[in-house]
Amino acid sequence: GRIYNVICLIRETLNIPNEYFIGIVPASDTGAIEMLLWNLLGERPVDVLAWESFGNDWVKDIVNQLKIENTRILKAEYGEVSNFSKVNCDNDVVFTWNGTTSGVCVPNADWINDERKGLTLCDATSAVYSMDLPWKKLDATTFSWQKVLGGEAQHGVIILSPRVIERLEKFKPSRPIPKIFQLLSKTQVNKKIFLGNTINTPSMLCIEDVLSSLQWVKKIGGLDQTIEISKNNLKAVETKLENSSWLDFLSSKKETRSCTSICLKVKPLVIEAIGDENLKKNLSKLLDYLEKNNIAYDIGSYRDAPLGIRIWGGATINHKDIEILLDWLEWGYYEFIAKG
Known about the structure:
single chain, seven-stranded mixed beta sheet, 14 strands
């Protein structure tokens, strides 16, 4: 009953259409989308959009593991997004809504054809509850409540349109599906998953934790309010960066800036003046100082991303704390970075 309550609250707070199926699966934020890749892909050619670390992981899964023929890779560098005008919506399309490691997000869903023949598979784990998602454009969506809701990891949510259910019941992949990924019961979708049953038993403490988070969302004003909080967090960074001595947005365009995973790069002139090796060493000293003094934790850029800062701006964060952090980072430039 408690798991079904979670499903109902997710549907209510995210305004998910009644015909869509919502289930809880024993998977991390990345594992949930992998489950859907294994179950759904292979009937049609695939367009996979890759502009950051996780999108590149989906490329490896689709090309090297699933070996889907006629896969097109629409790739972009960190700070950019793929060219949406080149997407063929008659193919299955795999993409992340928000690039957690690059600080860029999909600006809108206008490029997704309403009359598409393929399915859209969207990893929206750091977008849900901070960005307005167009459910009618999304066929198979995943997220984890460890992100914007601030909950525990290793629990995934899958949101499936009726088109996905039809694909699951009609398409039989030639590959075996690992037990923990299986969504079918014999030849039919296991509807129990979408009524509160699970493939594997989750921690009920985590279920109570996310119920508390979902009730908090309702209490503060719902989805509109959580989106507004994240937008204000991004605005706080934008204001502070106007006078920053050394930081700028990694995203090349304002309309693609993420309001949750806010990624900053070091300005090229600073890199040129200090040098790559000195910059890495001095930035490491600054980050160590911030952690030891309980100012900020784990704000260095993702290991594959350009050197810089990554700030979480989800709905559990107060913009005033971000403003204080940016002041510390400006102080840290002169205390640690600029000394060369």
